[in-house]
Amino acid sequence: MSSSVTLLDRLNVLDRRWIFLAMALAVAAPILLGIGSDESPSPPTKRLFDRLEELPEGSRILMAIDFDPNSAAELSPMALAFTRHCCLRRHKIYFVTTWGTGVPLLDATIKTVVQSEFGRGDRPYQYGIDYVNLGFVAGDAVAISQLTSDIRKARSQDMQGTSLDSLPVMNDVVSLQDMQLLITPSAGFPGAKEWVQYAGTPYKIPLAAGCTGVQSTQLFPYYPDQLVGLVTGIRGANEYESMLASKYPVPYAEMSKRPASLRGGPQRWAHRLMISLIVLGNAIHFANRYRRSSHS
Amino acid sequence: MSKTVPVIIASLVGFLMIFAFFSPQLLWLRQTAEDWFAIITTIAMVYGGLTLCFHHLKKISDSEAGWGFSAVTLLAFGVTVIVGMLKIGVVPETARNLNHPWSGPFLQEGGGFWWIYQYLFTPVVSTMFALLAFYVASAAFRAFRAKNVEAILLLVTALIVLLGQTKDREITSLFLPAMTDGSTPYLPIADLTEFIRKTIVTSGQRAIMIGVALGVVATSLRILLGLDRSYLGGDE
After folding, report:
1. CA of A24 to nearest chain B CA: how many angstroms apart?
2. A-chain residues within 8 Å CB-CB of B129?
3. What is the CA A9 to chain-centroid distance, rounded?
4. Candidate CATH numbers 3.10.290, 3.40.50, 1.10.10, 1.10.3470; the one for domain A43-257
5. Chain A residue numbers touching B206 (CB-CB < 8 A)
6. Contact between A70 and B41 using a beta-carbon 8 Å cutoff
7. Residue ranges per structural domain of chain B
8. ipTM of this complex
9. Residues 6 or more apart from A34 whose CB is under 8 A from it?
10. Whole-number pLDDT of residue A35
């Protein structure tokens, strides 16, 4: 009896640094051991995957990388997965960002997937023919509105300063209304909500979004009508990567090609720790109540 | 006069944007307004930068509490602007531009601005975001307790959603006894999570969004009609 009381007293004054240490271990151990995790697809993620599969080769996809390093841990893996899928299906990709701080992440996405994985071989992805980097368009929601009426009004040149008129990939492309699908992994303002309000819904352009876990409740009301697909958080990215691995096992079944699946392991253990802490916290709460009532 | 003219401009542009949305003939007017928006935003950004500097310089000169943070802010702001605008560390990318040292892009890999982004900005903001995990864990242990009916409802919902978000939702049936017909026991945590998300959360969120949208319409109309001038500053 006395030992349990001592334990309860100790837990009551538990230094929160022990919790920090437990969280650090829960996250660090799976990362260091390379423990990943697959995910079975949820309907909103599968719908986007199926849409990209159904689109005929050479369809025009606008990829709006609307996030910065704050949320890159969650959104970069899905941006890579979307781009990879577009390349596998040989779609034409139009990269853009409405975030000034998103430009290097946009460049990193192009470099990691388009140039490194699809830039060689029999049918390499060629800049200006298969994809273009439109870079940063300033003006937040107004920039999106400009893109819907005339892309050249928002950006007359690509990121390298080349006139858009001289790029074959821009032939017959006037505005976003010439795109078959808009995809935006986005973290805030401007983001998926603004793409829905200023591009997707008014002009009936199919739009899909990726978002951080905490944003999902704000975007789910738009699914399935205004958003054809919605990929949420690292779990959603993991679902997408798992579907890619299943459909294109070589080489995407390899864990090294699946950053979100690799992050699924730490996330799983962190969630388990959180659940354990909630249960333990409440056990302490009820033990305290029992002790108080038995003393009075 | 100083308030009437801006109100008239705001009203005209606001109504123009509304009409242009419904009338393709007015598209060119909408595009002109959008161009002006870009110009004004750029001027506002420069003005904002200057205001930031004056604000923090005043805090430093008055030696207000926390003036050291203002100094750090000014230093970081100044260094970033100078490195970016002078393209420090940027080299020409093509042989044709060898005589034009500023011809490379300001975010060129290996350049000063890129270095600041890659090795200062990115680690700092990533660290801030990562710290959340530790504070959420600590809060879950200390504050998330079943103290009353509302707290119990929140707690049970949170546990279901949290469990439903993990891969463990697929193995929760292991903790249940076997069914009488020998089939695998099934605790529909994933289904419960979906039900909470689709039905309870989404309906609540939609209600909030509709309310906010109606509020935005009402406020916008007040601004367009010149009834609400609070955006101009002052007491009106």
Report:
1. 8
2. 70-71, 73
3. 44
4. 3.40.50
5. 221
6. no
7. 145-236
8. 0.84
9. A255, A262, A265
10. 86
